[in-house]
Amino acid sequence: MTQSMHADAVAAARTIAQLNTAYTQAKVLHSAVELGLFETLAAGPATMDALCQRLNLHPRLAPDFLGALVGLDLLEYRDGLYHNARPAQVLLVPGGPLSLNGSIRQHGKVHYGLWADLTEALRDGRAKSGPQTPAGAVTTEQTDLDAARRFMAHMDSFNSIVAPELAQKLDWSKYRTFVDVGGARGNLSGLLVKAQPHLNGTVFDVPGLRPLFDEHMETLGTTGKVSFQGGDFFSDPLPEADVVIFGHVLHDWPEEARKTLIERAFPAVRPGGALLVYDAMIEDGGFNAHAHLQSLICSLMRDGGSEYTEGAACEWAEKAGFSSTDVLRLNTVTNDRLLIAVKDA
After folding, report:
1. Of the candidates 305, 258, 247, 311, which has an alpha carbon nearest to the alpha carbon of residue 282?
2. pTM of the model
3. Pairing relation of β-strands 177-181 and 241-247?
C-alpha cells in the first residue's frame, strides 16, 4: 500500500469511527438537557463543584461530561467557570422562540430507545413505539395533558422555524383565512397570524387538545385570531379556508391515507386557494442522508409512517384536482420541502 493510499484509508477510518460513536455525542446532549444544565447556566456561569451540587452530578463523571460539552462548542470554560456557548443559550434554554429543548427531550426519552430496535424493524417492517399514536399525542379519551404538553414542545421546536418560512414563501396578500389540519396547540398558526396580521386561522385537531390550544394562544397573544375546531381529519369534514395546511402530518400515515387526506383537503380549499404540505420530502432520484434518516424515524414511530418523494406529493395533489403544483425547499432544521398546490378559481 502506498503512502497516499494509507493516508486515504486512515482518513476514511477516522470518518467511519466518528460515525460509529456519533451516538455518544447525541446522548451527552440529551443528558445535558434532561438535567437542566443549560437553563442552570442561563442564570449565570458556575464552577464544576456548583454544577455537581445543583444538578446532583457525580464528581467522577462530571469533568468528562462537561469537558465533552465544551469540546462540542455547547459550553465555554473561562477562569474556572462554565458558561453557555452562544448556540446553547439561544437554542437549548427552554422558553426561547427558537429553542430546541423540547425536541431534544423527546428524542432522548423516546426516539433514542427506538433506534436500538432498528435491526429488528428492518427485518419485520414494524414500528417499535408500542401504541399506534405518536408518543405523547392526545386522543379524545386521553387526559394526560402534561405528557401532551411535553410532546407539543417537541413539535413546536420545529414549526417555530417553519412558520417564518411559510410566512415568506407564499403570497398571503391573496388570502384571508387558513386551517392547519393536525395543528396541535396552534403554535404554527399563532406565529403565522403574527407574521401576517390580516390572516385568521383555524386549528383542526382532536378535541382533547383544546385546553392546550387555549393556553398556548394566551401565551402567544393570539387569542381571537386563531380558533380551534375539534374533530377527526379522516371522518369529519375539514373546515373551509383559502389555504389548507398539512405540516408534518402526512409522513405519519401509509400512502393510501396520505392520498385520502389530500383528497379530503380539496373541497375544503376555496376556489383560487392553495394546499400547503411540508415534510422532509425526498428529492426525486436523489439520496439525502437526512431525509432518509428522518424517514426511518417515522417508520420506527408508526406502522406505515415514512417520508415520501416530491414527485409523489405532486402526483397526489394533481389527482385530487389541484391545477398546479410546485415544491420549494425550506430553510428548516429538518430540511423540509413545501408543496404548494393551487386550486382553480
Report:
1. 311
2. 0.88
3. parallel
